Amino acid sequence: MPVPRRPDPAPLETDDVAFVTAGTVVWAVALVATIVWRDALADRGHDSWAWVCLAGVFLGLLGVRKVRRRRAERRHAVPKQPVR
Description:
Helix content is 65%, strand content 0%. The protein is mainly α.
Protein backbone atom coordinates (compact mmCIF):
# COMPACT_ATOMS: atom_id res chain seq x y z
CA MET A 1 0.00 0.00 0.00
CA PRO A 2 1.52 3.37 -0.99
CA VAL A 3 2.30 5.89 1.69
CA PRO A 4 0.12 9.01 1.43
CA ARG A 5 1.96 12.04 0.20
CA ARG A 6 2.46 14.86 2.68
CA PRO A 7 1.36 18.34 1.59
CA ASP A 8 4.00 20.68 0.17
CA PRO A 9 5.37 23.23 2.61
CA ALA A 10 4.49 26.87 2.14
CA PRO A 11 7.02 28.80 0.02
CA LEU A 12 9.57 30.87 1.90
CA GLU A 13 9.21 34.63 1.74
CA THR A 14 12.53 36.20 0.73
CA ASP A 15 13.64 39.73 -0.07
CA ASP A 16 14.78 39.18 -3.64
CA VAL A 17 15.28 42.90 -4.28
CA ALA A 18 17.85 43.17 -1.47
CA PHE A 19 19.66 40.04 -2.64
CA VAL A 20 19.92 41.12 -6.29
CA THR A 21 20.85 44.68 -5.27
CA ALA A 22 23.65 43.38 -3.05
CA GLY A 23 25.02 41.29 -5.91
CA THR A 24 24.91 44.30 -8.23
CA VAL A 25 26.79 46.39 -5.68
CA VAL A 26 29.48 43.70 -5.45
CA TRP A 27 29.88 43.81 -9.25
CA ALA A 28 30.11 47.62 -9.11
CA VAL A 29 32.83 47.47 -6.45
CA ALA A 30 34.70 44.91 -8.56
CA LEU A 31 34.39 47.23 -11.56
CA VAL A 32 35.89 50.13 -9.61
CA ALA A 33 38.70 47.88 -8.40
CA THR A 34 39.51 46.70 -11.92
CA ILE A 35 39.57 50.30 -13.13
CA VAL A 36 41.85 51.39 -10.28
CA TRP A 37 44.29 48.52 -10.86
CA ARG A 38 43.86 48.51 -14.65
CA ASP A 39 47.60 48.71 -15.43
CA ALA A 40 48.53 45.91 -13.03
CA LEU A 41 45.82 43.66 -14.49
CA ALA A 42 46.80 44.47 -18.08
CA ASP A 43 50.42 43.49 -17.34
CA ARG A 44 49.18 40.05 -16.29
CA GLY A 45 46.87 39.62 -19.29
CA HIS A 46 43.62 40.28 -17.39
CA ASP A 47 42.61 43.42 -19.25
CA SER A 48 39.08 42.16 -20.02
CA TRP A 49 38.02 41.85 -16.37
CA ALA A 50 36.58 45.37 -16.33
CA TRP A 51 34.24 44.41 -19.17
CA VAL A 52 33.12 41.33 -17.28
CA CYS A 53 32.36 43.47 -14.22
CA LEU A 54 30.53 46.01 -16.37
CA ALA A 55 28.38 43.21 -17.80
CA GLY A 56 27.68 42.02 -14.24
CA VAL A 57 26.53 45.51 -13.22
CA PHE A 58 24.33 45.82 -16.31
CA LEU A 59 22.72 42.42 -15.82
CA GLY A 60 22.32 43.14 -12.11
CA LEU A 61 20.45 46.36 -12.87
CA LEU A 62 18.15 44.43 -15.20
CA GLY A 63 17.63 41.88 -12.44
CA VAL A 64 16.78 44.57 -9.87
CA ARG A 65 14.22 46.00 -12.28
CA LYS A 66 12.69 42.55 -12.81
CA VAL A 67 12.40 41.61 -9.13
CA ARG A 68 10.96 45.02 -8.25
CA ARG A 69 8.32 44.61 -10.95
CA ARG A 70 7.53 41.08 -9.76
CA ARG A 71 7.22 42.28 -6.15
CA ALA A 72 4.80 45.04 -7.23
CA GLU A 73 2.73 42.54 -9.22
CA ARG A 74 2.52 40.23 -6.22
CA ARG A 75 1.35 43.05 -3.96
CA HIS A 76 -1.45 43.98 -6.33
CA ALA A 77 -2.50 40.42 -7.15
CA VAL A 78 -5.90 39.22 -6.01
CA PRO A 79 -5.54 36.25 -3.66
CA LYS A 80 -6.86 33.02 -5.09
CA GLN A 81 -9.83 31.36 -3.47
CA PRO A 82 -9.11 27.89 -2.10
CA VAL A 83 -10.55 25.01 -4.09
CA ARG A 84 -13.21 23.09 -2.20
